[in-house]
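Researcher: Go.
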Amino acid sequence: MNAKQPAESAIPDNGSAENDLLGKVLSYAKRLRILDLGFEIEFLSDVVLPTYKGSTLHGGLGRAFRKLYCTCAEPLRTPDENDSEEQSIHHEAEACPYHFIFETRINDNVFKFLRNVPSVPHPYLLEPPLDEKKEYMAGERLAFTLRIFGSATGYAVNMIEAVALFGRLGVTRASVHFRIVRVTSIGAGRKQNVIYDGASNTYLAIPKPYRWKPREESPLSHELMIRFLSPTRLVKSEHLQENVDFLIILTSLIRRLAALAYYAEGLKNAVKLTEGVNISANNVRLIKQDIDWKAWRRYSNRQSTAMLLGGVVGELTFGNVTEDLLLLLEFGKLLHLGKQTTFGLGKYEIAQK
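Model: Structure:
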């Protein structure tokens, strides 16, 4: 498997020459490859899961994928002053499917907002069930979505094999096993196709990515409600925000798209998308705010410690939202917002008032 990204010229240009910022942003949104894999799994014995299941799924998937596909000879070390060692480490990571997807490292400084973080946004996210069900009996099933972006969509089969191995290795410290019942692929037009049957261990179709297309109907109004469905961790000036305004949301979304377009899709001109974001949000006004901070606890196997995370949940209503902003927020539902999106955080929905 080759983790290298395609050249920008290999991606068709559909309107990237538009002069205004939001036009350019939307043109890049239309060029990002997306693949949704819908998993249905069945537990083989009783299990108790955390209230928020994204952390468990995230950890198990990463552990299994590393066992199967990590090509690094040994765990990567932090580079020291030896230039040749640093170059060797970077080359090893860039060529490794595991590090490309799960520990996507920065080897340049093109984005100012990423200069104090060790990795770029990873080219995937999970959407676990949002219910608070914890106890599952043997034979009960659980469904979740794994969404992959850019050139990482070429590793769809590897992801399915990793989830299968995750089931054989077991969930939680009790090592409760599960099996894959089926995997569906959600493609263009939101059509759902079964691509893998777990009972026969058979691939029925090749997973194919799609590109986002804006809805054809015009917005009914310029008043918009944003509902945060999972804890959303938005950052401003390197600090998590409990009070969220439209500019923070817009900045987070455009930065996330720019980084994914640049690192996962190979679109180098995406660097320019983060310029002048505040201009696009100048006239948007907050009408109603009903949000709260929701904390949740996860256990990190890698760090062998419990971690307390949290984020914003609830609703915000804004006025004077233009059609382009509405379209961008519609697209943003696929990306999620803020930090720890790979766990499923930052999921939101929108509704016009």
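Model: The first helix runs from residue 21 to 29.
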